[in-house]
Amino acid sequence: MAKQFSIKDGKPWKARFFTIWSGQALSILGSQLVQFALIWHLTVSTGSATVLATASLVGMLPGVILGPVVGTLVDRWNRRWIMVLSDGIVAFATLVLAVLFALNIVAVWHIYVVMFIRSLAGCFHGNAMSASTSLMAPVENLTRIQGINQMLNGGLNIVAAPLGALLLGWLPMQGILAIDVATALTAILPLFFLEIPQPERGKDPGEARSTVWQDFKTGLRYVLGWPGLLMVSLMTVGLNFTIIPAFSLLPLMVKDYFNGGAIQLSWVEAAMGIGMFLGGALLSVWGGFKRKILTSMLGLMGMGAGTLLLALAPASFFHLAVGGALLVGLMSPITMGPFFAIIQSNVEPDLQARVFSLLQSVGTAAVPLGLLVAGPLADQLGIQAWFLLGGTLCVSMGLVGLFMPSVMNIERKPGTVLENLNPSSEQTA
């Protein structure tokens, strides 16, 4: 049975954890407001699809290319100071951009640079927070905490864009950027007063410290040596390859197939955000099945069913598409929340950032590849064809996963994973 990790200092955990969590939540809201405002500014000022695509790519590259290295460094460094410096760098870069807007000398490349810096700092911050959660909260609460996180994401999906649009009517761009600076500071402040436990490195003090490259290889061997984790990770790649590109085509589907407009599109997107909020709330209260992976597999099948409903809804039954989007949103936290909790409760704390970053890097890389295939295929066969492919794949992966011993026993980590990571093998790697 895999070792379970929890708080070591015996202090009450809820006040400490949720004080830090609340600051981070405010910071995420500020970041999403800025992201909406910057994308809208690029849309209005350039009218270029290439500029918008480049902005999306700039925001995605740090996680894809540098993610594994970031995770390795997070596992080596002090996580509290990583979070402090990451939020501080985001605040400083945003403040510089606010000054450029105030002086009316901002250029598109300035925005690209700041987006890249914010994305890279966000990789450090996100990995540090995710990998520290299992050291700040009891293991039996990790799935519920993931439900709360998913509920937060759903809530932000509902309110961030309308609130950003409202603020754009009231404030200049530099005013919205200043909000993000303020929310970043609210995330930093608690970290000066509250301790975040550090994981044990797993080596004796007298032994030579491993290099960054050795640590990276250790994380990679860890993932490859755990068949259940590897299989579920491949399912995540399939999910990102199909579902995310499918929903990027949703505006065209609403316009060309359902003969709808912006209002109808907003209904679908709002339904998905509401579904994510409700799914996160359900998971935070329920906690999922005792076997977390069972919850994830059923959630994956539910996401597929919602996607198939979107694909097969007749053009005159738009409400079915709204229902499908609601089901996809509802099942998203049920799918991903328990999977993250499995990693947090079974992976050794000093390896978690590396594991998270590797999985996120590979999963994120599948998105642009899916976009490259989805566009031409949708042009040839219709947008519904890609939704049909994504929905079928999700249902199939969930069903197959229920009958795969390596997947269903993922919470019983094989002993060979740790045996392959002993100090002697690491030094000879």
How large is the count of helical segments?
17
**What is the helix/strand order?**
HHHHHHHHHHHHHHHHH
**So, the CATH homologous superfamily of the largest domain?**
MFS general substrate transporter like domains
What CATH calls the topology of the largest domain is Growth Hormone, Chain: A
* Rg, alpha carbons: 22 Å
Mean pLDDT: 79
Q: Strand fraction band?
A: under 5%
CATH class of the largest domain: Mainly Alpha
Q: Class by helix and strand content? A: mainly alpha
Largest sheet: none
Q: Terminal Cα separation, in Å?
A: 27 Å
How many extended strands?
0
What does this structure look like?
With 429 residues, the chain is mainly alpha-helical. The chain folds into two domains: 12-139 and 159-195, MFS general substrate transporter like domains (Growth Hormone, Chain: A, Up-down Bundle); 211-421, Growth Hormone, Chain: A, CATH 1.20.1250. Helices cover 79% and strands 0% of the residues. It has helices spanning 13-46, 49-76, 79-102, 108-136, 142-170, 173-188, 212-224, 227-248, 250-257, 262-286, 292-312, 318-346, 352-381, 383-402, 405-408, 416-419, 423-427. The radius of gyration is 22 Å and the shape is globular.
Could you provide a short overview of the structure?
The protein is mostly helical. It has helices at 13-46, 49-76, 79-102, 108-136, 142-170, 173-188, 212-224, 227-248, 250-257, 262-286, 292-312, 318-346, 352-381, 383-402, 405-408, 416-419, 423-427. α1 (13-46) packs antiparallel against α4, α2 runs parallel beside α4 (108-136) and α5 packs antiparallel against α10 (262-286).
